């Protein structure tokens, strides 16, 4: 069965991830397609990625954020917000939900793209920060629409907001895909290449051009196109099936 294309009847997407580089392992190709068509995309990074390299943490944070800014530029993302939660020990809880909720209310996205929060995935056990980020994002979406949750934000002028779509990466039961054939894929590869110092610090890491297109090719087979990014998508405004 061929997967359907994700309905792209939206104007604003918020991508919530734990670290610099999390968006660049394939997802950014879909972002490149969206920004090219006039859709506004914002990134919310929950940590600065300071534990991800052998360098001292503050030096690593500065380096990784500079590379993330270059990665954003490669795919047309102008809205980059970076929080200061600790890398490697991200904690699911009210503080994390509150911060994500704040950005949802501020940015007012139609779509929130979050991290996978399953423990076991086809690629191995999911990293702890990714799981915490994914679950907190899921809960913050609901929080953002309820004025009685984190009401101090409403008092500050951040009105409740309820996004329509919730997306997570599609390995393990994808429901929709985004065709990234051609320029979007090229720009997606360039966005990961922007993390040059980070990738150089990972022994044996393959070149982005050697594996990102292969992943997108497998996604394309599921959609019947050359290259695609797959998602599990949930329409949060749809009536529940009885």
Number of helices: 8
Mean pLDDT: 95
Global morphology = globular
Please estimate the helix content: 25-40%
Through-space gap between termini = 25 Å
N-to-C SSE string, H for helix and E for strand: EHEHEHEEEHHEEHHHE
Kindly state the number of beta strands. Answer: 9
Strand order of the largest sheet: 3-2-1-4-7-9-8
DSSP strand content: 15-25%
- Which parts are unreliable, with pLDDT below 50 for 5 consecutive residues or more? none
Described by strand count, sense and barrel closure, the largest sheet is: 7 strands, mixed
Integer-rounded radius of gyration: 17 Å
Structural class: alpha/beta
Explain this structure to me?
The chain has 242 residues and is an alpha/beta fold. Helices cover 40% and strands 19% of the residues. It has 8 helices and 9 strands. It has helices at residues 27-36, 57-74, 94-107, 128-144, 151-155, 183-193, 196-200, 208-223, and strands at 12-17, 40-47, 79-85, 111-113, 120-121, 124-125, 165-169, 176-179, 228-235. The chain has a 7-stranded mixed beta sheet with strand order 3-2-1-4-7-9-8. Helix 6 packs antiparallel against helix 8. The chain is globular, with a radius of gyration of 17 Å. The two termini are 25 Å apart. The mean pLDDT is 95.
């Amino acid at each position: 069965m061929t997967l359907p294309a994700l309905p792209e009847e939206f104007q604003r997407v918020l991508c919530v991830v734990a670290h610099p580089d999390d968006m660049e392992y394939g997802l950014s190709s879909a972002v490149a397609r969206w920004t090219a068509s006039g859709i506004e995309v914002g990134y919310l990074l929950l940590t600065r990625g300071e534990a991800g390299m052998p360098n001292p943490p503050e030096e690593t944070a500065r380096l990784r954020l500079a590379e993330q800014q270059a990665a954003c530029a490669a795919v047309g993302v102008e809205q980059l917000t970076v929080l200061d939660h600790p890398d490697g020990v991200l904690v699911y809880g009210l503080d994390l939900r509150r911060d994500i909720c704040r950005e949802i209310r501020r940015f007012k996205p139609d779509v929130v793209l979050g991290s996978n929060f399953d423990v076991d995935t086809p690629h191995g056990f999911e990293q702890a920060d990714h799981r915490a980020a994914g679950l907190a994002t899921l809960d913050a979406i609901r929080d953002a629409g309820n004025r009685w949750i984190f009401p101090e934000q409403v008092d500050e002028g951040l009105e409740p907001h309820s996004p329509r779509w919730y997306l997570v990466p599609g390995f393990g039961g994808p429901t929709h895909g985004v065709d990234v054939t051609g320029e979007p894929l090229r720009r997606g590869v360039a966005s990961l290449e922007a993390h040059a110092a980070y990738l150089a610090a990972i022994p044996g890491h393959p070149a982005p051009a050697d594996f990102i297109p292969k992943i997108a090719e497998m996604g394309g087979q599921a959609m019947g196109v050359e290259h695609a990014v797959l998602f599990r998508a949930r329409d949060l405004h749809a009536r529940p099936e009885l």
